[in-house]
Amino acid sequence: MSTDTSQIELYKQKVGEVGASLVTSGMKVGLGSGSTAACVVQALGKRWQEEGLRFVGVPTSIETAHLAQSFGIELTTLGACPELDLDIDGADEVTRQGFNLIKGLGGALLREKIVRYAAKKFVVVVDERKMVDQLGDHTPVPVEVTPFGWEATAKHLEKIGAKISIRLKKESKDFFLTDGSNMILDCNFGLITDPAKLEKELNSIVGVMECGLFIHCTDEVLIAGHDGLHHLK
Questions:
Q1: Known catalytic residue: 112?
Q2: What span, in angstroms and rounded, lies between the C-alpha atoms of 141 and 123?
Q3: Which of 48, 176, 184, 215 is the least buried, fewest Cβ under 10 Å from its Cβ?
Q4: Domains in the chain, start-ordered, CATH in brackets?
């Protein structure tokens, strides 16, 4: 499996184009966040400008909104459009069986989960590095928490086995804040044997807004890799 950066970018571009091909005019579409989801938005932008594709998008982050707007894509909100036809997003880990996910290394997990559950269909686009046999293989579980009392929330997370790393801004040592002004605690649980149970435990803790476990909610996965593109359903 190649780890060459340029090759990975080609994988992302290809899977982004295939993901964008699922969108037809008149659709209401959730637009995910992260580098692979950005490739989907770019491919949609190209279709918007060159093919006359017309749809409305609900972005899961400010960054995605800015990217979509740069192509002239029409955006809306869940307030105006509470039910979506399709949501396309990336993931940090995807299990080969069951398509369970870890998401949120980009910091948009709460909005991503809200948009996912507003959509009739959820398609995940990834490169082959993201496929795992068991969640927790190489990625911590991002947990979005309120800044108020985050220390107490962290202690509760530690009690259920989390080894916590506080998400910081890349350019400084300040706390990273989501678009909703919350903090993210990256929680390492090792290999996760019961992700559905862990998701419930995490979301039951006072102070936790949402966690990056997306369980039993993925309809299809598009994977680009050294042996081509696979569309799993």
A1: yes
A2: 20
A3: 176
A4: 5-133+215-232 (3.40.50.1360), 141-209 (3.30.70.260)
